Amino acid sequence: MDIAVVYHSIFLIALLITLGAITAREYKLNNDTRQMYMTLIIKVAMPSIILSSIFKVDIDSKIFKTLALIFFISILINLLGLLMGFIISILFKLHHKRIEIAILSAFGNTGFIGIPLCAVLFGPEGALYAAIFDAGVDFTIWTLGVFIIQRNKTFNLQTLKGMINIPLLAIIIGLSIAFLNISVPEIVIDLSDSLAAFAVPLAMFYIGATMSQYKSFSKSISYIELIIPVLVKLILLPLLVVTLVLFSTLNELTSYVIIVQSMMPALTLSSILFAKHSRDENFGAFVTVISTIISLLTIPGILFFIDFT
């Protein structure tokens, strides 16, 4: 991998996040603007970048097998993150925050940051692999993740409905079109390309706007509560993934996409999930903000370490 491209991409992301934070100083992020951002990113930008990637990749049976493998590897990595978060929080006697710490240690921002970043670093095929990895994250969140967050530990139809989202439908529809070898009109391809182009800036602006509120998130959060999920998510889990991947038979592109996705900062959706299930939403928001800032250093750092070794 060209490490210069990595630094360029991370620097670009940092600039976009900064612009988002500056913009939010004049136009405060409230429920309405937050909902607008979420709608545009999840229901327009993400599906477009997924479909655009699928339309540009010649998908054969070998790639379909790779996609299935990435999906299951994603689930495995999420489970490892949950386990590490649980164990370390218990070792440090943080029983009151063990659920939140486990969730933040496991689930990364593989959609908002991971897919666009992989698109820039690895092209359309890399973006497609990243989208499948993100689908594995979504599957784990809306099954095991939601189950452990809940106070009454129930799994119902509403939970299953939460698994159905527009990016997942875009993956299913796009792969079905590729599998059936259906010819896509040029106007549809051009539309998906155009909408995909603003996925990166839109997502980064939203993260920057969220960061501008960090002072209101940080109240009554101890350093050890903050350090554990950030350390697990950005360093311990990625290094474990790097070790496992380097001893596997995966090809270079698949390996790098899995490694990059495993290094993503804490899930942006975490604070929303915590609020919905009476957990500490401020803790989730603050860890997300801090881990996103630190990931701008850890992502290129770990990739440089891999290339150097």
Question: What does this entry look like structurally?
Answer:
This protein has 309 residues and is mainly alpha-helical. It has 14 helices and no strands. It has a single domain, classed as Na+/H+ antiporter like fold (Up-down Bundle), CATH 1.20.1530. The model has no long low-confidence stretch (mean pLDDT 85).
Distance between the termini: 13 Å
CATH topology: Na+/H+ antiporter like fold
Strand content: under 5%
Largest sheet features? none
Counting helices, strands and paired strands, the structural category is: mainly alpha
Tally of discrete structural domains: 1
Query: Can you tell me the CATH architecture?
Result: Up-down Bundle
Let me know the average pLDDT. Answer: 85
Helix content: over 70%
| Beta strand count | 0
CATH class: Mainly Alpha
| Structural Rg | 19 Å
How many DSSP helices?
A: 14
Succession of helices and strands: HHHHHHHHHHHHHH
Taken from the alpha-carbon principal axes, the silhouette is globular
Spans where pLDDT lies below 50 across 5 or more residues = none
